[in-house]
Design goal:
By secondary structure, the protein is an alpha+beta fold. It is built from 14 helices and six strands. Strands 1-4-3-2 form a four-stranded antiparallel beta sheet, covered by helices on one side. A two-stranded antiparallel ribbon has the order 5-6. A hairpin with a 2-residue loop joins strand 5 and strand 6. The radius of gyration is 18 Å and the shape is globular. It starts with a strand and ends with a helix. About 45% of the residues are buried. The mean pLDDT is about 95.
Length: about 290
């Protein structure tokens, strides 16, 4: 079954920038259709979605699956950061030359997010100390074997296994050592409600990060990955992300990456958009290079 849901967009947004960005395990892509497949919040079902932008202030979601189309579209809105009125962020670029320059290099870019805390943590465990491209292939194979495959705008796309299905996996090629037990720990946390997106987003990011570090295999870098790149915060500063610290330093004309404390000091002027500015700085730095 396919249903169509339109999402309003407030502020500048260019879907093509998100498609070309690449995020999570995804490679950057091209074209005018963003194809998504994911576990719906609550982790009891999956959905496939083809997203297009028929007008500057509208996103169109063609939803597949048995979940509520409105609930699926709401998650898409979070994933593409269009659940937020971005006019204040646009205004910040007009006031702050560093931010304005980053925005100009990737106009209309907003942070594309992981689908959920669950999927961000799965990727964290899979990719830790392993080549990302190799583990992206393992993730895709796992999703095809134990998740759900959708035909999204003419392309087969697989959503990762639901937590209960992941717990039934006892071995899988490419998932070795402590990785599978750690994936099972994440699956159990999801089923117990520990990874409920609304709950995690509603509390202080530092509290969330501390809670996530209790999971086996999740340290400061990966707990920050969730708070910054999965929950939809606009003002969680990625102080543990070396590429952001390097990009901001280059934007300021400095050779060495900023220390976390220095980045925090510089970023005070960016509140309440520090997450978005960090993503824009990193993306703009790549575009400049």
């Amino acid at each position: 079954m396919t249903a169509v849901v339109d999402l309003p967009v407030l502020g500048r947004f260019d879907l093509a920038q998100s498609i070309r960005f690449g995020f999570g395990q995804r490679d950057a892509d091209d074209g005018s259709v963003m194809r998504l497949a994911f576990c719906l919040d609550g982790y009891r079902t999956q959905a496939g979605v083809a997203v297009t932008q028929p007008a500057s202030d509208v996103l169109r979601c063609e939803v597949q699956g048995d979940a509520s189309p409105e609930a699926v579209a709401a998650q898409v809105a979070r994933v593409l950061s269009v659940d937020v009125d971005a006019t204040g962020y646009d205004d910040l670029g007009g006031r702050d030359p560093l931010v304005g320059a980053a925005q100009a290099r990737r106009p209309g870019l907003r942070p594309p997010l992981f689908y959920s805390a669950y999927e961000a943590l799965l990727w964290s465990v899979l990719s830790a100390r392993r080549p990302q491209r190799q583990m992206a292939m393992v993730r895709t194979a796992l999703a095809r074997a134990h998740g759900r495959v959708f035909d999204v705008a003419g392309v087969e796309l697989a959503a990762v296994p639901l937590p209960e299905d992941l717990l039934a996996v006892t071995e899988f090629p490419g998932i070795v050592g402590p990785k599978l037990p750690r994936l099972h720990g994440i699956a159990r946390a999801a089923l117990e409600g520990v990874l409920d997106t609304a709950t995690l987003r509603a509390q202080d990011p530092d509290v969330t990060a501390a809670e996530l570090r209790r999971l086996d295999g999740i340290g400061p870098f990966y707990s920050e990955l969730v708070t910054v790149r999965a929950l939809g915060h606009t003002d969680a500063l990625p102080v543990n992300e070396p590429m952001v610290r390097a990009a901001v330093a280059r934007a300021m004309g400095e050779d060495e990456p900023l220390a976390p404390e220095r980045l925090a000091e510089v970023a005070e002027a960016w509140r309440p958009w520090r997450t978005w500015v960090g993503v824009a700085m990193r993306a703009g730095d790549t575009a400049r290079g």
